[in-house]
Amino acid sequence: MTEPRLRVTEIFRSIQGESTRAGFPCAFIRLTGCSLRCVWCDSAYAFHGGSDMALPEAVDRVLALGTDLVEVTGGEPLEQDAVYPLMERLLAAGKTVLLETGGHVLLDRVDPRVVKIVDVKAPGSGMQQAALVENLGLLQPHDELKFVLADRRDFDWSLAMVRERNLDAGRAVTFSPAWETLAPGELAEWVRDCGRRIRLGLQLHKVLWGDVPGR
Ligand code: SF4
What is the pTM of this model? Predict the structure, then answer.
């Protein structure tokens, strides 16, 4: 049988940077391509290019990095069909699998054991219209929501959404700054005073090493 193939931008070991597992060693596989163009996207280098790779090679290379935690990211990983067997094989190998997704692809095919970290696109992303509201109904308690905020308007919009839908009840919700336009300290004060169960996310890898690929 022919093995599925993936388009892969990079596979590397780093520190998980922006979820409740931030700080743990983690192997990353970044799949190539995304149909969105968020204003503040920090992985535009994954829009094009990449290497064509058979699924077993991709799995072997991720497992060779030797971490318990594995993150499938992009680009938008769910835009490649082979991502589903990829996640299943990583789960079968005993890994805790995180999936970073932009929230514009339906989540109904993702194995329930995968921890989904789902973006909610605020207006400042320029991609608010792409969000699939149905995805909010497909989340499990272990999944997480991430809002990247460009400014105070984004913060107010996101906080209103958390309140209206009670998104922080029993689920991790992270507000992270778009580094180019919103000072982390300013967002920290808004989060501190917002009265909801919301975490400040700081993209630990950027604090440690700056905004560079493969880190
Ligand atoms: S969905 Fe993610 S990868 Fe795609 S443009 Fe937005 S931030 Fe970048």
Answer: 0.94
